[in-house]
């Protein structure tokens, strides 16, 4: 019965729809068009019960103004968080709750713009400085994602759409404050790897680092168990900071199980991304995560990818490699090359096979 429902044709012709939001608003269908059906991939691995374990919490004030003892304790906690989980919650940071709320409201206003106005920002290439799009792609025969997005380069150059009003101003402040948190974290992470505190920032030429501000919009979905917002993936920068609108849906993979992550309003959720994995020669691994959808409330998340500068060659820190048990596990390439390979679907397998190789020795 359920599968028959999923096969029911959508009353809306796909070519008329440019976003998942528009699809949802144009129909009251209780089923999703079949090309959103992600079922074969979705329920493949176990989901942890909420009580099983919990994401580590890092109090950033202790990194900034703690006693030397408190600092070394928190650096130790950070090291464990990065190596055991690949993610953590940052509390007591300067990205205020009101700023986050204003940023979420501004992105909501953007997604509420008429489809025609949003089309102006449609882009296809990873290097387009402003790019909005959707999981919806009628020309693809594989499953699509239940998600619309807007991505803007926020650093070293700042680009945002010129509407809605105040979007740009709020996005600038939000990106800047997130970046400040990341600068503090990268210093502590360098120390936790036994490196000098400016090591990661210098190696990644972080002063010119690419910062990508991305909002994900997941409308309510009549068949949430069949669709996916974003399938399992790893982020490409050094660290990602993430907030959401109080609706949960994010899951991270820890010890071969998927954990639900509920992000409180005043918390920044931080994920280890691929370039920290490369720099640390696999000591800290990027975390697999995915976004589920639901049938009760629209979910929005805002992710900031904080990466190296585009033209810096990234490789494992020389201090962390040797010719014996710590051989470099990743090939050298610029962040730009990495992103371009990733976009054309050629990178992850290569990156992954490098990891597999390093695990095999
Ligand atoms: O919506 C989320 O919580 C996850 C978003 C995400 O993984 C991404 O934008 O890369
Ligand atoms: Fe992600």
From TrEMBL:
SUPFAM superfamilies for the chain: Clavaminate synthase-like (SSF51197)
| PANTHER family in UniProt | OXOGLUTARATE/IRON-DEPENDENT DIOXYGENASE (PTHR47991)
Keyword Nucleotide-binding carried by entry: no
The protein, known as: Protein dmr6-like oxygenase 2
The UniProt keyword set, sorted, is: Iron, Metal-binding, Oxidoreductase, Vitamin C
* PROSITE patterns the record matches: FE2OG_OXY
Signal peptide range in chain numbering: none
Q: Which GO terms describe its molecular function?
A: L-ascorbic acid binding; metal ion binding; oxidoreductase activity
The answer on whether this UniProt entry bears the keyword Transmembrane helix reads no
Pfam families linked to this entry: 2OG-FeII_Oxy, DIOX_N
Family affiliation: Belongs to the iron/ascorbate-dependent oxidoreductase family.
What range(s) does the Fe2OG dioxygenase domain occupy? 208-308
């Amino acid at each position: 019965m359920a599968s028959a429902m999923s096969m029911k044709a959508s009353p809306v012709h796909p070519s008329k729809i440019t976003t998942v939001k528009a699809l949802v608003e144009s129909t009251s269908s209780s089923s999703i068009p079949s090309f959103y059906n992600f079922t074969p991939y979705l329920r493949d691995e176990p989901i942890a019960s909420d009580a099983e374990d919990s994401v580590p919490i890092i109090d950033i004030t202790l990194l900034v103004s703690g006693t030397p003892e408190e600092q070394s304790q928190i650096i130790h906690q950070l090291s464990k968080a990065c190596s055991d989980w690949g993610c953590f919650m940052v509390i007591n940071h300067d990205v205020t709750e009101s700023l986050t709320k204003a940023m979420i409201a501004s992105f909501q206003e953007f997604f509420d713009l008429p489809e025609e106005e949003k089309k102006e920002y449609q882009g296809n290439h990873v290097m387009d400085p402003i790019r909005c799009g959707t999981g919806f792609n009628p020309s693809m025969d594989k499953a699509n994602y239940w998600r619309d997005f807007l991505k803007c380069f926020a650093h070293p150059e700042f680009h945002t759409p010129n509407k809605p009003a105040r979007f740009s101003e709020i996005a600038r402040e939000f990106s800047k404050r997130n970046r400040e948190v990341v600068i503090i974290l990268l210093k502590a992470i360098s120390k936790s790897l036994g490196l000098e505190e400016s090591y990661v920032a210098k190696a990644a030429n972080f002063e010119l680092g690419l910062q990508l501000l991305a909002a994900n919009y997941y409308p309510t979905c009549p068949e949430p168990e069949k669709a996916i917002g974003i399938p399992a993936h790893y982020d490409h920068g050094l660290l990602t900071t993430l907030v959401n609108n109080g609706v949960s849906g994010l899951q991270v993979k820890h010890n071969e199980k998927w954990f639900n992550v509920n992000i409180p309003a005043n918390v920044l959720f931080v994920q280890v991304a691929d370039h920290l994995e490369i720099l640390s020669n696999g000591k800290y691994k990027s975390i697999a995560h995915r976004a589920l959808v639901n049938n009760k409330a629209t979910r929005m998340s805002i992710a900031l990818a904080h990466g190296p500068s585009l033209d810096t060659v990234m490789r494992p820190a020389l201090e962390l490699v040797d010719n014996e048990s710590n051989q470099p596990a990743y090939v050298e390439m610029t962040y730009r090359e990495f992103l371009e390979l990733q976009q054309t679907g050629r990178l992850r397998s290569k990156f992954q096979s490098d990891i597999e190789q390093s695990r095999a020795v």
